């Protein structure tokens, strides 16, 4: 039951998500997910240029539900966010227009098909909380300076490496409890046709989705993730 004015309940709606203290998870409603899919479909299907603000609005709507979808939503929308930021830096937020790139289009389709899978993310606690920060080639130096000092580094630190070839993605651990971690998975036929950038991002996403039990740390930890494209701090 949802919280009412007359009696307590185990579910409450807060900031656009449903918090369930019985199942210990945060979820987005079916109606909200349907609206997000409609928004994504309109953006993906258009072949005309669109404003930077319009695409940024979609990314913002998706990322605002990180509590329900987990960090996978940040990884899934990252390529789109890069295109938004690059265009905004070149032409400004008010006058910037862009055509959605093939990589961004593929990323949004994958996000749309994964929303149900990502939904019902576990409620965070000091022991299970995850924050994610990425450092990308070509990113505004001022932005990096603002982000990195604010990232808390914990005593337990681990390093993962991932890579993607034309046919396969792989990831392995370098130290600590992840020293023996190894993950290899063949790409699906439609994934083989994607760009190298998209496959590299897919390697991170597949590793996270297929190894949740292994990568769930018993204590709050810092995870450094190395790829061909950038270093990601989680």
Note down, in words, how this protein is organized.
A hairpin with a 4-residue loop joins strand 2 (17-20) and strand 3. The protein has helices spanning 30-45, 52-63, 66-69, 72-76, 78-91, 102-118, 141-147, 189-192, 196-210, 212-215, and strands at residues 11-14, 17-20, 25-27, 50-51, 97-98, 121-122, 133-135, 157-164, 168-173, 182-186, 222-226, 231-233. The protein folds into 2 domains: 35-122, no CATH class; 133-233, no CATH class. The strands form 3 sheets. The protein has a 6-stranded mixed beta sheet. The chain has a 4-stranded antiparallel beta sheet with strand order 1-2-3-6. A two-stranded antiparallel ribbon has the order 4-5. Residues 1-6 have low confidence and may be disordered. With 234 residues, it is α+β, with helices and mostly antiparallel strands. The protein contains 10 helices and 12 strands.
Outline the secondary-structure elements.
Layout: E1 11-14, E2 17-20, E3 25-27, H1 30-45, E4 50-51, H2 52-63, H3 66-69, H4 72-76, H5 78-91, E5 97-98, H6 102-118, E6 121-122, E7 133-135, H7 141-147, E8 157-164, E9 168-173, E10 182-186, H8 189-192, H9 196-210, H10 212-215, E11 222-226, E12 231-233
Parallel strand pairs: 8-11
Antiparallel strand pairs: 1-2, 2-3, 3-6, 4-5, 7-12, 8-9, 9-10, 11-12
Low-confidence segments, given as residue ranges, are 1-6
Which class best fits the helix and strand makeup? alpha+beta
The number of helices is 10
Largest sheet: 6 strands, mixed
Beta-strand content estimate: 15-25%
**What is the radius of gyration?**
19 Å
- Shape verdict: globular
> What is the count of structural domains?
2
């Amino acid at each position: 039951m949802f919280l009412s004015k007359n009696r307590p309940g185990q579910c409450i709606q807060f900031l656009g998500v449903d918090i369930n203290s019985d199942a210990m998870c945060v979820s987005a409603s079916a109606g909200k997910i349907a609206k997000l899919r409609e928004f994504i479909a309109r953006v993906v299907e258009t072949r005309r240029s669109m404003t930077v603000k319009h695409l940024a609005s979609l990314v913002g709507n998706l990322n605002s539900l990180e509590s329900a979808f987990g960090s996978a939503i940040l990884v899934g929308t990252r390529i789109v966010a890069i295109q938004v930021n690059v265009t905004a830096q070149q032409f400004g937020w008010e006058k910037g227009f862009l055509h959605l790139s093939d990589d961004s289009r593929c990323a949004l389709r994958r996000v749309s098909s994964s929303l149900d899978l990502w939904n019902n993310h576990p409620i965070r606690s000091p022991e299970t909380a995850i924050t994610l920060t990425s450092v990308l080639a070509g990113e505004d130096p001022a932005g990096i300076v603002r982000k990195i000092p604010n990232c808390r580094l914990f005593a337990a630190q681990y390093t993962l490496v991932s890579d993607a070839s034309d046919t396969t993605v792989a990831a392995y651990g370098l130290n600590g409890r992840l020293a023996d971690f190894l993950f290899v998975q063949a790409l699906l036929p439609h994934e083989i046709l994607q760009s190298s950038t998209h496959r590299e991002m897919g390697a991170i996403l597949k590793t996270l989705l297929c190894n949740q039990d292994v990568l769930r740390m018993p204590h709050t930890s810092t995870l450094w993730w190395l790829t061909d494209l950038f270093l990601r701090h989680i």
